[in-house]
Write a structure and sequence with these properties.
Length: 214
């Protein structure tokens, strides 16, 4: 049985009920133009002021935000003229400040940024190196319509990919959603310490959480 909700913008997205996403984020980061190698990150106990955020964004027409809950993370992207990306980033900061006072993070993030909701339709999944998505090419996986995963085909292909040879970065699988705005949930799929080898058990668990049968 799929764990994904029926509504395309349901707030009951299965990732949101995971224990990993019940607390407030501990670390967050912004990136411009998808350059996560140059992301601007900070702990949620030491957030920048809004002026610093506006100055960092400058005239960028594409800004993405990621919030880490331990080794799991959530990301949301905003594209368009700079006034819109600046409002988006300020909304993220305000949601984080409210989360520090005990307000639930995800509903607050929606309210502060205008994000319409969480899709139930996974566009694709990628297995990549955290904060090295460009410099170490990610392994893209297109989910089967039947939800049945041929793990005996997926796993050997993953081990032959460049991502398996990387020993520097933790690995994660990102489940990407395109509507109503680009957003994603990431779950760890490697050993926690160096050399961060891919973990077959962690990948199976992540796929199961997303509603697949590995």
């Amino acid at each position: 049985m799929s764990l994904l909700p029926d509504s395309p913008t349901s707030s009951s997205n299965p990732f949101l009920i995971l224990p990993a996403f019940q607390s407030r984020p501990d670390v967050v980061q912004f990136a411009k133009k998808g350059a996560w190698e140059n992301a601007w990150g900070f702990p949620t106990d030491d957030l920048p002021d809004e002026g610093a955020v506006l100055g960092w964004i400058s005239d960028s027409d594409e800004v993405a935000f990621e919030a880490f809950f331990g080794n799991a993370f959530f990301g949301l992207r905003c594209t368009g003229p700079a006034p819109g990306t600046k409002c988006f980033a300020i909304g993220c900061i305000r949601a984080l400040r409210r989360a520090r006072t005990g307000e639930p993070f995800f509903p607050t993030l929606r309210r502060e940024t205008g994000f319409e909701g969480f899709s139930s339709s996974i566009a694709f999944a990628e297995i990549g190196a955290v904060n090295a998505w460009r410099s170490c090419p990610a392994f893209r996986w297109l989910p089967p319509a039947t939800r049945k995963v041929d793990f005996q085909l997926l796993w050997p292909g993953l081990l032959r990919s460049p991502i398996a040879a990387d020993c520097t970065h933790p690995k994660a699988i990102e489940f990407a959603f395109e509507q109503p705005a680009q957003h994603w949930f990431g779950l760890p799929v490697s050993d926690p310490g160096p050399p961060h080898r891919l973990s077959q058990a962690s990948l199976r668990e992540a796929l199961s959480i997303a509603g697949f049968d590995p």
